[in-house]
Amino acid sequence: MELAGQNPDIISARELGVVACTRCSRVWKRGTNTCGRCGHAIVSRDEKSLQRVWALWLVGLLCYVPANLYPMLQTRTLLSVQEDTIVGGAIELMHHGAVGIALIILIASVVIPIGKFLAIAFLALSVSRRSTASNHQRQILYEVVEYIGRWSMIDIFVVAIMSSLVQLNTLAAVNPGRASLFFALSVIFTMLSAQAFDSRMIWDVQSGDEGARV
Amino acid sequence: MSDTPQTVQIVPARASFFSRFSIVWVIPLLALAIALGVAWQSYNDRGPVIEIVFENGAGIAERETDLRYRDISVGVVEDVEFTDDLSAVVVSVRLDKTVAPYVDATSTFWVVRPELTTRGISGLDTVLSGVYIEGSWDNEIGAEQTRFKGLSDTPLFRSDQDGLQIALRTTPGGSLTDNSPILFRGIEVGRVGKAAISREGNFAIAEAVIFEEHTNLITPRTRFWDASGFTFSVGASGAEIDFSSFATLVSGGITFDTFVSGGGRVQDGSVFEVYADKAAARNSIFNASEVETIELRVVFDDNISGLAVDAPVELSGLKIGKVESVAGIIDPDEFGDSRVRLNAVLSIQPARLGLPDEVTPEAALAFLSTRVGEGLRARLASASLLTGGLKIELVQVDNAPAAVLLIDEDIVPLLPTTDSEVSDASATFEGVFGRINNLPIEELLNSAIEFLDSAEAFISDEDLRETPQDVRALLGDVRQIVTSEDVRNIPIALNATITRFETLMAQLEEQELANRLAAAVDAAAEAAKGVSASVEGVPALVTQIEAVAAKAESLPVEELAMQLTELVKSADGILATEAARQLPADLGAALQEINATLAELRAGGAVTNINATLDSTRKAADAVATSTQDLPALVDRMRAVLDQANATIAGYNKGEVLSREAQSALRDISKAADAMASLARMLERNPSALIRGR
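The joint structure predicted for all components is written out below.
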């Protein structure tokens, strides 16, 4: 199979005048409103998909701001209480020599979420404007974003496990900071945002010249 | 590019605003609303920021150090920075909105740190949690203020505390212990704060607080005194050390008492004086407040040592002043000669005189002048028997020579004197001490020391130490004696003696003395028979018999036995000497030696010899016994002879002399026979007695 995007012969289902049910994959003639097999509503293109993407993307971004400003983890020992933000904690780890762990935290909590925001924004923009990236590249990007989204929750897992394990009463305790809630919300909303994206639209722009909106 | 016609198509078709926009936009709007709401609320809840200036910021950390009121956090430090001139630290504290209105001009702030003082440990919790700022303000909303000056120490008064606030001032010349408790009957009822020296430097004053529940103890007549330290006094009841408590001993303390009742309550801000001790405090109640002293001059003819500056001046035993200065004076004009006199200047406290009306120096001088006119005189008196110190007494002297107290502006009034009454007790004491001094204590001690030295020398003398060695040597000698050949030879000699005795006995046996005796008696019997035949031969026969009997009697058997007994006794005595008995340690050895000797003796056949000797002895004794067995027969025979003789004599009935002689001869024979019989019995009963002598 040739590399996608370099093959001009790719024809979308829409161009063939058919539409597939997104739930059971049954192909119907274009214009069918309800899947005759599973009863799911059938649309060839979800017109409000982009709005949902942008709305949820915005909420995710809003949540990402306090997630970085507030402390993620509150470490209380006998003598002191230490609160660390995500980036601050990673920098501190780096000062202590644990560069590897600091990098993992930075990648999982900073690089990937920001990358997701950028990727979703790029995809959403690229369906309405022409892009230099080929359809295939964007499809892969979308799949990567969808796949990687759940792994952003690893930070929340670490906080949850730490705070449930390290509870030594007066000696030491680890409690989740306020940022953990916002971080979880941010991840959830970006995942929802990525899901809301109707990936079929990727193909329309490419073939837009050939009368995409027929 | 090709979108334009489509847009034209679409816009009119989707006129509805809500159908054009997805419902999902509600979510970001909601999030935004929540975020704004939270932001506004947190901004709204923020209290004002106040600034507190501290000398230093030890332990204060941004966003960690609390501001506490009654130990509850009501704010947190937001910022710590220096003042512009770097002379102090400005701590910005974000107050809680609820208490912010109460933080007004009356508020005070200080830093609570762990403190270790003589009265205990405080702020221990701050060791772990770090310091905090404590604030104190009243419960009334006052004028707003945002900049405060922090205190360096925990303040004595806290505006949220009740209590009586007073000030304590030292008496002239007195001292004060600050930062100490005020005790009443040993209970802490208040505290003295930091003391300050007055501007003139003539007294120290400290603020003090009496806790609310004890304020009724304080009246205007309450007197305070210093309870710190301890007093040590030697009096009639012996030495006495007195202190009120260990806490006051270490950190000082002030106590008080209200000696007289009445007086009502005390207002905040009253000033009390702190007296040196309880007596001074008590006295102060009855004394009017002291005024300026008056000076008097006294000249004593006798120049008596012992009057010192500050010596008391007493009137009827009450101290009314003291000696200001003492100096000699030579004034031929005034006294008529050039003798040196004692000139003392007295300062009299008019308040102590107990004047009825207003207390002024003038009134006091007038009073004294009147009294001098009535005979008041000054004299020297003994103040202390032990130290020989003197005081000046003002006494009433009857029939005193007239004198006046000259009162003038320029001169010091001269108080007339009378004879000194320096107690002889002083001299007596001196005498006693002199006598004590003269006691030959040193000699006694020297003697004792010498005695002890001699005793020590004696005890440590080599000879004395060697005494046990001498004793040991003595024992050695004794042992040597016991083991000496001589002693060992004793049994041998004994053996020889016994052998000889045996020989003797054997000879005795050989001699067959008894047989001969029997034969002699037989012969006598035959002679008696002959007598019965011829009466004439009787006296000669009797004489012969008598001689024989005497011969038999004179045999030295008993003497021999006696000598033998003594010999054995001496041997016994040697063995049982005191020396041997008193030295048991070596006696064992000696006995062992003896034992060894005996063993040797046994080995050497001595025992055998002794046995043989004893056997011989027994044989001899047996022989004697057998011979003595014959004795009764002999006696019988003799009796028969005598009977015959008797009969013959009775038959012939003539010659009474012969008859008497024959009778006495026969009695002698009978005695001899008895002696033989007793010897025989003795030997028979105890043959070994011949050897042992008993």
